[in-house]
Amino acid sequence: MASLPTLCDPRPGHATVREVGLRDGLQSIATTLPTAHKIAWLDAAYAAGQREIEVGSFVPARLLPQLADTAEVLAHALTLPGLVASVLVPNLKGAERAIDAGAHWMVVPLSASHAHSLANLRKTPDEVVAEVARIRATRDAAGSASRIEGGVGTAFGCTLQGDVAEDEVLRLLQALLDAGADRVSLADTVGYADPAGVQRLFEKARTLVGDRLAAAHFHDTRGMGLANCYAAWQAGITRFDACLGGIGGCPHAPGASGNVTTEDLAFMLERMGLSTGLDVAALLALRQRVQGWLAGETLHGTLWQAGLPRHTGASVSTLAQPA
Amino acid sequence: MASLPTLCDPRPGHATVREVGLRDGLQSIATTLPTAHKIAWLDAAYAAGQREIEVGSFVPARLLPQLADTAEVLAHALTLPGLVASVLVPNLKGAERAIDAGAHWMVVPLSASHAHSLANLRKTPDEVVAEVARIRATRDAAGSASRIEGGVGTAFGCTLQGDVAEDEVLRLLQALLDAGADRVSLADTVGYADPAGVQRLFEKARTLVGDRLAAAHFHDTRGMGLANCYAAWQAGITRFDACLGGIGGCPHAPGASGNVTTEDLAFMLERMGLSTGLDVAALLALRQRVQGWLAGETLHGTLWQAGLPRHTGASVSTLAQPA
C-alpha cells in the first residue's frame, strides 16, 4: 500500500486540518458548484498548504446532484503530489467506485444513534459495521491501496433520539476496527457536543483504540466548534475536519453555522504554536473566491471579519477611557 | 464587610457568568441606551438568574456619555437581593464615586502592555498599581465594604506592541495584590488569545496567586472566545465575563464580534454539566428585547440562530444519503 497517514498527525507539534468543504459543505447547499470551480478550489487549497481533502461522496447522482462529479474531482486530486484524497462512501457500492477510482481513503459514515442511523442510512449501526467488513473484503480481494476510515457520527447526541450513550459509541468504534476499518473518527454530526464531553469521550476512545482514533469532526452550530477542537486536541487528536468559509450550514437549524471553519481553525492551531503547513492569508483569499462562486449562499466563520492580527494602528480605548 | 464572592465560584460543579454588557458592551456602541432600558435589562437578567453584573463605569460623562447614568443603574442594582454589582473605575476619583455609591466591587483596569497602558490609561502599568494602593487606602479609611479587583488586560497580546511577556503579566498580578487588590482577573482585551496560551498563563497565574485569580475576560474577535473559556476552566477558573448578545463589537476590528456572548457561554457551561443558575431560554428572550432597543447595532453570538436543541423533528440527511 502507498504510504498514507493512518494516525493523527504523528509529527510532534503538528496538526492537520482535513478540508471537507467540497463534500460536507457542498452537499448541504442548494447551489451546485461547477466542476471547474471545484478543481480551482482544490488547486488553491493545495497551494495554501492543504494536504488532506475530502473531495466528494460516491452516492447516486439523483440523491446528491451537487456531488455527481466526484470521480472527476477525485481524478484531479490524485494528480497533486502528496495530497491525500478521501471520499465518503455510504456502502459497498460506493466503495467499489472509490476503489476503482483509486481514492486514498474511503470514509464510511456510521450513526451511533440508532434512530438517526435508520432515518439517514436505512441501516442499524451494526448493519453498517457488517458493510464495512464487506468493503474490507472487497478492497483486499482487489489488492487495492484504498484505506477505510469508519466515521462514527451523532457521537455526542442526536436530533432524533437525544442522548447517545458513550458506551455505545465506544462499542461501535471497536466493532468498526474489528470489521476491518484501518482507522476510526468521531463526529458531532448535529452540533450538540460541548468541550467537556468531547474531551471525556475522546480520552475514553483513545484509551480503547489508541492512535487508530485518528480524526475529529465538529459542527459549529452552537458556537462550540473551536472549543471542541481544543478539547479533542487535549485528548491527543491532531487531525480535524473543517470547511472553508464554514459553508454548508446545518440542516437541523436553518441559518445556523455548519462545520468548523477551516481558516478559523487553522488560525487557532497556528496561534497555539502548532504547525499546520497552512497559509492562513491564502485561505482567506480562497474564501473570497468561493464566496463569489456561491453567490446567494451564506458563509460563516469569524476570522474573515476581524482579519489577521496587525500590531500597529491608532490607540483605541477598550477597557476604559482615561478620566 | 458584606459577604461577597472573592474567589472563582467555590461551589463544586458551579460556574458564574458575570454580565458585562451594560459596561463593556454599551461603552463600545454609538447608541446610548436610556436608563429605563438599562434597568429593565438588569431586572430581566436578574430574573434569568444572573447574580453578578457589571453595571457601568465611573468615568467622566464627557468621555463615555453612554455610561453617564452609572450611579442610577447601580442604585437600582443594589435593590436586587443577592445581586453582586460591580463597576469599572479607572482611577481614585472613580473609586471615590463607587465607594460613595456602595458598589460591591470596583474593577480597576490595568494594561500589561506598556504601549496600550500609556495610550489608553495615560499611565504606566506600575502607575496603575500605585493608584490601586491609593484606592485601597481610601477604601479602608472610609470603612467601606467595596472590594477591589485588579483586571489585567492585554494579557495575551496587544494591537500596539504585539507580544506581551507572560512574566510581566504575572509580575503585575502579584503587584496588584501586594498593593491591596482583593482579587485579580485576566483579560484578552483585543481578541488575541488562543486556548493553549490561555491555559498556560492561567495555570502559571494560579500557581502564583491561587484562588485570588478570580475571573477571565475574553473577546470573541477571532472566534476563540468559548475555546478560551474552556481552557481557563481547565486551569480552575469558574467566573467568566460575557456580554448579552455579544454587543459591543471590537474597536480594533470593525464588524467583528466583541465579548464572549452570555447566552452562548451559559449554554456551553450548562451543557458541560456545570450549574450556572441561568435560564438560557430567558437569556435568549432578553437578547431579543435588547436587540429591539439597540436597533441599528449589530449583535453577535451563535445560539440565538440555532436555538436550543430539541430532540424531535423530521429526518434530515447529514453525513450521507442512502445510496
From TrEMBL, chains A, B:
Keywords: Lyase, Metal-binding, Pyruvate, Transferase. One of its GO terms (biological process) is L-leucine catabolic process. PROSITE patterns: AIPM_HOMOCIT_SYNTH_1, PYR_CT. Pfam families: HMGL-like (PF00682). CDD domains: DRE_TIM_HMGL. Residues 15-284 form the Pyruvate carboxyltransferase domain. Belongs to the HMG-CoA lyase family. This is Pyruvate carboxyltransferase. It comes from Acidovorax ebreus (strain TPSY) (Diaphorobacter sp. (strain TPSY)). The lineage of its organism: Bacteria, Pseudomonadati, Pseudomonadota, Betaproteobacteria, Burkholderiales.
